[in-house]
Amino acid sequence: MPLRDLIKEVRACKTAAEERAVIGQESAKIRNSFRDDRCAFRHRSVTKLLFIQMMGYQTHFGQVECLKLIASQDFTEKRVGYLGLTQLLNDKDDVLMMVTNHIQQDMQSSNNQVSALALTALANVGTADMCRDLAKNVETLLLHSNSFIRKKANLAAVRVILKCPELNEDFARHLGSILEDRNHGVLLTAVTLMLEICRVNPDQVRDFRQFTQLLTRALKNLLLSGYSPEHDISGITDPFLQVALLRMLRLLGHKDRQASEEMNDTLAQLATNTECTKNTGNSILYECVKVILDIEASSGLRVLAVNIMGRFLLNRDNNIRYVALNTLHRLVSLDANAVQRHKTTITECLRDQDGVIRRKALDLTIAITNESNIKTIVKELLDYLLTAEADFKDVLVSKVCLVVERFSPNKKWHIDTIVRVLTLAGRFVPEESIATAAHLMAATPELQTYSVHKLYHAVKENSGSAGLVQLAVWAMGEFGASLVQQTVQGPDGVESSVGEIELCEYLGEMLASRPADITRQYILTALIKLTVRMPGMRARLLDLINGETTAMSVEIQQRACEYLKLMDVHWDRVRVGLLEPIPALRLEKGEGQPVVDDEEGSKSPLNPPKALAKNMLDIDLLLGTDEPSQTQPTEERPAPTATPTLDDIFGSSTPILNAFQSPPAAPALSSDSTDALTLTPIQDEDVVVTMVCTKKDIGNPEITTIEATTRNVSSSVITAFKLQVAVPKHVQLQLSPASSTTMATGEQVAQTIRLTNSLQGEKALMIKLKCDFQLGSEPRSKQTTVSSFPASY
Prior knowledge:
The chain is α+β, with helices and mostly antiparallel strands and 793 residues long. Among the domains are: 440-595, no CATH class; 628-661 and 668-793, Sandwich (Immunoglobulin-like). The chain is built from 36 helices and 16 strands. The longest helix has 20 residues, at 466-485.
């Protein structure tokens, strides 16, 4: 059966089962025919196997028949044999070992068609062993008198280098003469061979720079050549060769000024004269721009590249616009001013229907933003925010907040912009941006009155944005005095003022609307702070707080109860200090996070969301649970003042250090001491913890000093050591850092524990120890309770 008839039968099948039956019957006939060594239609059977293989069926039984056809002296059979070799086999088939000798003989044939078949087969399925054995034959054919053979030899050489990179120098030495070939096919394959050599051996680029002028001249000849029907595609002469030449010039000109100067004029000519109305010309212009980006190009050439990408942005094809946006993003770092000229076109892409184009345009818009154009760009982005899709607002708002923090021309504009963003799309604003705005207000006293007034009126018009509500409520609590005592002039020239009663009632309305728990926490904190800013409204403010003591949320209920306790007379002397505005923090422009100086003068970043949420009045400090409080190691500080203590108010509450007052000077320590008490609370195969307890301060018998040492008794090194101590609520604790966090076998670390028992003589000391460390690569944790202190402790 001829191939044509087989195709007709397959196409006539109406079901997959019928097709499998036809293919199965024909495959059986083909196998039977292969058993006859005198079969005259072997080549026809192999062609049918090629069709069957294209249909997705097994054809491995015909692989050896391809070798028989290759060995034939008939050109038709040999051609079919090589075609079957390249299609039915791959470089992993063991059958290829048997064909190497035939390919070598055919390469040396006087018939150029036969030599071309052998080179094509090697270029497609040559294994590493075949390429190594036939490399010399390919090298010889590189200089063949026939251009068709030279072209095929170049492609075979690419395969040889791909499989045997160590042979690249054998072919590189012939490139000088090959590149002077006037045949387009030979020149194209030669440049392809150069690119492959540079890929496997980048150091070869230095040697190839001697061909820069030769390749530049070839590119210029293509540009200036007249119409050639043989090579013309959409009015462009051989665009495939032009693209290959540009890719090679891109490698040669990278970080080399001399090579770049040799190609600058030709690149400018190419960028100017190439037609960009069709994809053929666009592909060449794109490669030209990529070359300009990578070489040491002149500023004028880079401006030309930017203008090309600007024309790409006007194209209706989104693929071309995507390429332009990507390329312009790279060009920003090279010539931002040139990209700035296309700002209008770039921002127009934000409204494209394609989401990928919108995101790329947004990234590029942010990349070209600086101090000089920040106001214009942010205005355009905020205008677009009004109509942007919900899934795009998240990214858009984050980018806007980022550039506002980085390039804000002044603090007032920063606050105005963040408030507008919160008004338009508050739920998409990152917490970090809200916190930064809060710290900015706290650090700028002259801006506080304006900010709190603006936020108050903004939140009254748009109370649906949680972020705006939280920032506004925070500002009311911090700067409520400025809100009710001072007026500001609005944009319409009218003086804006807020009364104390109006402010209280508005906060009450917000509580009555039952917002989210986190927002209610902000409101409660603002109410307690306003009690010292608006003393005349204290009763009303406390009434609002009292209404939340029966809230369903335990957190809300706890805060309300704690804040009401702060109004007891015991806290009269420290209440103002506790509820004063947060201290001003120094903001470093462009970093997005406020920075504070610690006691040692080093800079440490403050986490804005956490700092804002805790809002200066730390609930964990004000009210502990019934469990003992745990203290991390801190620098030892003198004991705090004795009044008022939380024990006086809550009974058995957690003793704390007053974080809002400066502690008094430490009492003088006597050199005399009572007899030491030695305890060993932890002792096992890993560590031994020993405590030496003394009463060093004779004048303060409630103070106990413990020198704790931890020794490594294991056979491994201990790392990440940390000792934690928990005490009852009637005991105040100071714990110094460990002398080291690493202990070799037999080594020990020391820590000082200072305990103040406020019920000394009534309740004995009791402490809990927890020892965490890394033993080798395994984490370990030890804990125990020490209750064996004498009653005098």
